[in-house]
């Protein structure tokens, strides 16, 4: 019960503490307007070039923008503790590290899922996108998996934030890498050979492909392999993040740099 309380209640309290002081209006440009603008940009470029269709760009870019809260919010829950001089208090608690930090990931996953859904719903209402009613349960699951996978990368990014001065710069770089390598607006098959070989190791690649197939009417059983691979990629980054967090925590204690900003 203690572990469950740390995982659920502790994660929610930490998330609220990091962002509760912000005005809710800041969510509008960053998590509603920006994904819509990106979707419109690539959808109309695709129309002009005669490449792909609206559904292709909506699914890719909607899931891509789930990375914004998953990367930045996950990193901020760790980097913010350091800047607020409370990280040492968190790390000296007897609580196990896995529920302590994975609990902080749960609200982030929900946030990323909501941002992706904004893009999908916008595509349905404004662009030429039609999703069969029977496909929605599978699509919602795929979007959840995509958000969780990106949050795993965000956890690794948050661990690096223990050492670097500004984690937002790294977040922008990772977001752009996902945009280019994950098949967001250019199909993985159309990427140069070396980029296509690297692409499966990035979060979102398998989830975007699965979302496009589901939106075309495929059943969950038809894309379960893609979903499992996406879960594996996310778990790999989450495990790397936890290990890196533990190692950097130890190094920070040795060199008295735990809360240096």
UniProtKB/TrEMBL annotation:
Residues 15-213 form the ABC-2 type transporter transmembrane domain. The chain crosses the membrane at residues 21-45, 57-78, 105-127, 139-162, 169-188, 223-245. Keywords: Antibiotic resistance, Membrane, Transmembrane, Transmembrane helix. GO terms for cellular component: ATP-binding cassette (ABC) transporter complex. It is a multi-pass membrane protein. One of its GO terms (biological process) is response to antibiotic. Its main location: membrane. It is found in: Membrane. One of its GO terms (molecular function) is ABC-type transporter activity. This is ABC transporter permease. It comes from Nocardioides immobilis.
């Amino acid at each position: 019960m203690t572990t469950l309380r740390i995982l659920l209640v502790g994660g929610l309290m930490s998330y609220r503490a990091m962002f509760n002081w912000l005005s809710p209006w800041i969510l509008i440009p960053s998590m509603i307007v920006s994904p819509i603008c990106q979707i419109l940009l690539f959808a109309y470029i695709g129309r002009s070039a005669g490449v792909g269709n609206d559904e292709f760009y909506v699914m890719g870019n909607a899931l891509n923008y789930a990375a914004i809260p998953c990367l930045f919010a996950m990193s901020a829950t760790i980097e913010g503790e350091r800047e607020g001089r409370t990280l040492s208090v968190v790390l000296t608690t007897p609580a196990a590290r896995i529920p302590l930090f994975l609990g902080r990931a749960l609200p982030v996953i929900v946030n990323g899922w909501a941002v992706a859904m904004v893009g999908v719903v916008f595509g349905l209402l404004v662009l030429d996108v039609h999703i069969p009613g029977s496909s929605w349960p599978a699509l919602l699951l795929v979007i959840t998996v995509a958000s969780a996978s990106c949050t795993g990368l965000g956890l690794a990014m948050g661990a690096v934030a223990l050492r670097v001065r500004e984690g937002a710069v790294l977040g922008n770089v990772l977001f752009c890498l996902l945009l280019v390598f994950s098949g967001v607006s250019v199909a993985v098959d159309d990427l140069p050979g070396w980029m296509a070989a690297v692409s499966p190791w990035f979060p979102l690649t398998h989830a975007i492909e699965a979302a496009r197939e589901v939106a075309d009417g495929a059943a969950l059983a038809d894309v379960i392999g893609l979903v499992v691979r996406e879960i594996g990629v996310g778990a790999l980054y989450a495990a790397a993040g936890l290990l890196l967090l533990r190692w950097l925590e130890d190094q920070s204690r040795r060199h008295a740099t735990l809360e240096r900003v």
